[in-house]
Amino acid sequence: MPGAxxxxxAPFVYRDLLIHxxxxxxxxxxxxxxxxxxxxxxxxxxxxQPFGIDEKVVDRIAGEVGQAVESGVExxxxxxxxxxxxxxxxxxxxxxxxxxxxxxxxxxxxxxIGMHEALERRGVSSRIFSAVPMPTxxxxxxxxxxxxxxxxxxxVLFAGGTGNPFFTTDSGAALRxxxxxxxxxxxxxxVDGVYSADPKKDPNAVRFDRITHAEVLARGLQVxxxxxxxxxxxxxxxxxxxxxxAPNAFVEVLHGQGRATIIADQ
Length: 266
What we know:
Layout: E1 35-40, H1 55-70, E2 74-79, H2 87-92, H3 97-121, E3 126-130, E4 139-140, H4 143-151, E5 155-159, H5 169-179, E6 184-189, E7 194-195, E8 207-208, E9 210-211, H6 213-219, H7 226-234, E10 239-243, H8 249-254, E11 261-263
Helix pairs in contact: 1-3, 5-7, 6-7
């Protein structure tokens, strides 16, 4: 249901997965997710820098992922590569799209290594699985090995997108969420949910508290690419969109607090 932003958003509820505790202590109930996949855009890692990785941002996100793991949630993670390279840059300049996408895949591996190091520094065990084989750097993706790692409480980082050109890391995230049986796909963006237009460009943009996958596709909303939304819809995976820029937002949203848009079947 669409609704304009407000200064004091009420905790959101996604059916039986997220429940706000209304007892006198005012605390949120424990997250009822068994397993989630967090998709973070590469641009989110820029921080105040024009290029590359801001270590403070990566460390903060790693800390929030660690808190989620401590609360009993199994967490998989996909990080885009836009802070280093975007394959479409070459395509728009008239270059080889396949070569550009391959370069973008390598950028996601670099970001996964950076996130892995940040997690390990915090004592959070993690493993990297790449869709593109590079055994001297990380493991090649295997659903069975990734499943075992998640069950052992390790954070699993999926790099290299789908391993194929012409697919975004959003599609890669939706694919891995389906393969790993995730309860939800969390999309950390630069805004606090899904809007009818870019709120940074259109002051009249309307924010949605809840919307279906079909409505996102029909309206052409640019929260994720159409293939990713359709894959999530077909596998009954809710998408929860929130601002990764807000400190502790991931943990708050996991516990039914904070501010987010839910994309799910009615």
